[in-house]
Amino acid sequence: MKHSPLCSRDDGHEIMFTAKDGDQKLRFTLSRDMLDTTCGAAANEAARKSWVKDHMPDILALRTASVTPTAPFNRVRVEEIA
């Protein structure tokens, strides 16, 4: 699945990206709260993006997960977009 470059908001504390699989387009959002927990509240944008890149296969798998994801991936928001 192809995905867009990582984007951020909230001064680099929240990370999001889109991915396309066939005709389906999805937005993945990793909240500040989730990334504070996984990376540490003092982590900068680069450290947060690095964590997301390192865990990209697990994050992308959320769209087809047949079981309930475990922490911290259960806190990633996945939305279908037009």
Could you please describe the fold and organization of this structure?
With 82 residues, this protein is α+β, with helices and mostly antiparallel strands. It is 28% helix and 30% strand. Strands 1, 2, 3, 4 and 5 form a five-stranded antiparallel β-sheet that branches. The protein is globular, with a radius of gyration of 12 Å. The model has no long low-confidence stretch (mean pLDDT 94).
- The helix content is 25-40%
The proportion of residues in beta strands is 25-35%
Mean pLDDT: 94
The SSE string, one letter per element, is EEEEHHHE
Cα-to-Cα separation, first versus last residue: 17 Å
The SS-based structural class is alpha+beta
Please provide the count of β strands: 5
Shape: globular
What gyration radius follows from the Cα positions, in whole Å? 12 Å
Brief sketch in words of this structure:
The protein is α+β, with helices and mostly antiparallel strands and 82 residues long.
What descriptive keywords fit this protein?
single chain; about 80 residues; 5-stranded antiparallel beta sheet
Write the layout of secondary structure elements.
Layout: E1 2-3, E2 7-9, E3 14-21, E4 24-30, H1 32-39, H2 45-54, H3 56-60, E5 77-81
Antiparallel strand pairs: 1-3, 2-3, 3-4, 4-5
